[in-house]
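User: Batch of two.

Assistant: Item 1 of 2:
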Amino acid sequence: MKKILFLLAIVFSIAFAEAQQIWDDFTTGPLKQITTLQAEKIKIEQPGENILGGTRYITYNVTENPYQQLFQLAIQKGALISSTGFGTASSMSITYGGNRERALNMDLSQYKTIKIAFKGESNFARVYLNMWSNGANRAFWRGNKENHVPFHGSINAMGVNSEKVISIPLEQLTTKDATTESPSAFNIADVDSALIQFYGFPATGVNYAIDKIWVE
């Protein structure tokens, strides 16, 4: 009986692993803490073994900093941590893949949901998703196809500091219409790049830690 249960556990774990595709667990591609007292744009390229496409590309924008508060960004202990000081807003985008030699050629047709897990967050921010296939063909998500500005795709309600998982159903993706210059439609079975954006605007002093990004 124990042997049967053990074998069933193995089968279940294999099936569960196949049902998920990890995009990033932030255990590789470490980033020493970056701090700044000024408004600026920071671009970072990080290769790693547990990263979709082998590299994550981070772009971080920090607004004016009237109170000279520290902005901090780091990857440590399996989490991407962002902390923006009082009076300062920020936005971050993470890109996986790209065109030509960076293309992922990823088939997501067998998956239903993209998930983003947070270890903790304060205040609120918004999550946007863009994906491309075969050039300029794009699909995007802005939060349940409803106008909840500024809370659509929200990481959390204001004033809450707790773990949270954002779920993005692939069926809610909006496909950009094809044009004469770009006649081919977006193809969920051939995704070349994915861009996830984390907007703190217009809130200031937003802090959060991203734990994992995956599809299932």
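Item 2 of 2:
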Amino acid sequence: MTKLFRLLVAPLSAALLLTAFSTPARADTDPLLAAQWQIAWDTHRFYECLAAPLPTTGRKQVRRDVSIEINAPVEHVFDAYSDIDNHLGMHSFLKRVVTHADWHEPGTRYVNFTAVEEIPVAGLPVTSDTHAQQRVHRDDLYYETDTWTLPNVVTHQKIVFTDLGDGRTRVTEHLTFEASILLIDFTVTNGVSSHQATQAGLKAAIESGLL
């Protein structure tokens, strides 16, 4: 069963009352980020949030698809594209990635991580910690990533890789954004642009042989 985050509405001190995630984050580095990731996990399940929000909640969902074709074999594209560390430097927002846990279950690789981004707001950079879980299904050539960040912005991503033949691959990202009605337009605009920039950067790196 897909596991996702719950709404982060409890104060930080309440985290001591929460049950621990069955596979705790291993905080080898950045223990504060690891603790924040764990609190987000314990207090937020994305699968509850990804049901269409009621109008009375003041939240809204928007879905977008972005796609790109890459001149490289599908297995190579999948391995390079699904490695979150390869996304560093592909767009200006993402500054570093902190991995808290990385393990395998039958057919699926799980990665718990925090992406540290600097997002321009009114012309000024604002640091944002995006807590995420990635589930990689290599045999089926797709992966999913669910994320949560302040102020209660949720995304669900399903990235599908299609073999076009002749050593070409199409990558299609199915994106679902959820945020308050005041933030949804900003969230979608910046989210789509950052994904498109990352796609273009990964395409160039893969086709040039850098990845």
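Residues 1-28 have pLDDT under 50 and may be disordered.
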